[in-house]
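Example record used in the benchmark description.
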Amino acid sequence: MIKKAVFLQSSPDLASCPLPTLPEFAFIGRSNVGKSSLINMLTRHGNLAKVSSVPGKTRHIVFFTVDDSWRLVDLPGYGYAKVSREQRSQFAAAALDYIARRETLHCLLVLVDSRIPPQEIDIRFVNYLGENGIPFALVFTKTDKLPERRWRVNTDAFMRRLSETWETFPPVFFTSSATHAGRDELLRFILGSIKSNN
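Model output (structure tokens):
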């Protein structure tokens, strides 16, 4: 489904991002949720996005061009990072600026760790997206790390929390970078979104 994926550039802020000429699908989530691993799994390019054992390593907006026709974007993670509070606020500002103002953003893919119960920071962020009319999908990651019955408890609890404020849910995907679970479904969603917007 993907023939070619290449690194384009890393930008510290919206002003230095590449020209908005192609549809973009951006990944965001708490630090250490597995954004880089998921990008590598989707593109089947093992080292395209740099995977680090240190949470919060992505500090810029990182662009990858796929098949010369669309882009994947790795946004700085929110939450824990071994940096100063000032640096964290700069990362958040760059990501929020991109989310709010990037005209070629087709969909924001919000990654949530399936191994843990719902986190308030994720719930607040998803509600922020809804309040601001930003199109997004939920992508639960690391489903290979627990038996399905156990991660389903966490993901079901997350959706119950959303049902308190949401009448209809965004698209939801369950993925594993290790087993490639959810890859085909997520790619079909992305390519379908591009086609429907053309």
